[in-house]
């Protein structure tokens, strides 16, 4: 053995030893400290990484720390195999580059990385060791439901978006790509798959097919077949994400914190629970006329019965539904008449009036001299628009230490 070979072998053994310690510190207890030296390899080497971003001086972080460590031990006992799941913790004061990379704006922040891909959704649930364990178990469940015949697909929830995969065999490389994408996007869509005889009628032998089925009860969209590469993870993920994360989203009390934290004003349709046509038409008009505004506004629908409180502050009740309004995170503004939505350009004008300050100005001083239309019921001089109500559903100072506020 030459001297050069000995040096190379020694270097390789040293690297292996270091990686073993960094990635799988099996003799350690609690969550694994993440640093700039080990985080990338940890994310790349594990199916699921659950990260706690904290600060030593944050009281909420200090309350969470022992709970998260306990959860790490429970999860390690439940899933002991290497490469399955790791709970990691990031001291953001020491690892400032990691905190910046993950856009941390509050402590503690709990993020999920699946197969090396950061999940858009943070963990915002109960902070207990048991809740964390159940969450991880759910994350590691197979994201795809198998159908045995095409008839099984006739009973899918028409209010949910679905992706169907038709394959010959489970061991096809294309299915492996499909499954990885499904793992990353399972919170946005329902995934279904059929093999062999169950899907034979839908595709030629040896040629897998992936199809998107929209939430037909809530939209005017149609089925669409994927035409890109079935072996390109990024290409397939982008296509499925575009289909599964609609331009117009539903806001609930569970999703409000996440949507508010995105920092964009809301254009909201408040609807009656049984008025699906209003939802369909609103979505279609947004997609046809306001696509170029998606970087500036969050387009949302909201159950007017559940969100009666914001409606009340607009001077409206369930009897007035459907109602359209803007919440700018400072104030709320009412779209004058729902039926005006069907007039081309009216919703666009409503947004432009927000940007220009016209909506706020008219609440204080009445309609502009050039305006022939009264925009709101209450336009007397000196009045103010209702304050934002959805801002109150954002990250709470009773749960987080907030580093900054996104307020428009």
UniProtKB/TrEMBL annotation:
MF term (GO), any: protein disulfide isomerase activity
Segments of this protein annotated with the region Disordered: 366-396
Keyword Signal belongs to the record: yes
Swiss-Prot/TrEMBL GO biological process terms: protein folding
Pfam family, one: Thioredoxin_6
Keyword Signal (UniProt): yes
UniProt domain Thioredoxin: residue ranges: 13-141
Signal peptide: 1-28
PROSITE patterns recorded: THIOREDOXIN_2 (PS51352)
InterPro entries in alphabetical order: ERP44, ERp44_PDI_b_1, ERp44_PDI_b_2, Thioredoxin-like_sf, Thioredoxin_domain
Name of the protein this chain belongs to: Endoplasmic reticulum resident protein 44
Annotated organism of origin: Drosophila albomicans
Higher taxonomy: Eukaryota, Metazoa, Ecdysozoa, Arthropoda, Hexapoda
